[in-house]
Amino acid sequence: MGLLDGKVALVTGGARGMGEAHVRLFLREGAAVVFGDVLDEEGKALAEETGATYVRHDVTSAAQWRQAVETTVAAHGRLDVLVNNAGILKFRRIADMEPEDFDRVIDVNLKGTWLGVKSVIEPMKAAGRGSIVNISSIEGFVGAEGLSAYAASKFGVRGLTKSAARELARFGIRVNSVHPGAIDTPMVMNPDLVGEVDGEAFVKSMVIKRFAEPVEVSHVVAFLASDRSSYCTGSEFTVDGGLLTGAGY
């Protein structure tokens, strides 16, 4: 018996990295999964391999949100879980960052998450309950040099999560945020970031001195998607190997 038996989930940014790990684990735990991305080649390949449904999905587009939700409900008759996973990172110090780069990060990471919450309210109300899991970051708790836009977006996801939790509890919809730390995904291999961060010093600052596998985040996401987290809403779950406890971060 799977943790998510009978659940229907929509996962954004699901073609690779953490999103791919969410898709694979949700399927193993019994959920029916629709996932979106703008990486068509990777998305179609993952769908063919796993049996999940892929939809092209730019999370900054309200129209594409409608299409993704409609595809999910048409295929499975309901929508129980949304994982707002899609996100981008742009390493630039404030003095060097162009306003349009800042806008792009905010649009994807924060506005895209807001649009997701808004888009699933009606189908979750129709289902009588729901769980929304917003993927933030440890940069939603602490600032990091060169990541002003990313940190601003992820701090914003925390506030959005808490407001949505208060608004949607009356409909049986729970909203929580997950805050990954050092996860081994393509995003952390961003050349600008790698060139600026002292990797050895970063690992020394960790309590658990390694990068996490993406599925280690997925297990927390799956718990929040499941009925086992039925009394959790508006809460923040760090998956950072104790990084935020370290004075060196």
Automatic annotation (TrEMBL):
GO molecular function: androstan-3-alpha,17-beta-diol dehydrogenase (NAD+) activity
Pfam families xrefs: adh_short_C2
Start and end residues of each Ketoreductase domain: 7-186
Enzyme Commission identifier(s): 1.1.1.53
Alphabetical list of SMART domains matching this protein: PKS_KR
Record's keyword terms, sorted: NAD, Oxidoreductase
Matching PROSITE patterns: ADH_SHORT (PS00061)
PANTHER family assigned: DEHYDROGENASES, SHORT CHAIN, ESTRADIOL 17-BETA-DEHYDROGENASE 8-RELATED
Name under which the protein is recorded: 3alpha(Or 20beta)-hydroxysteroid dehydrogenase
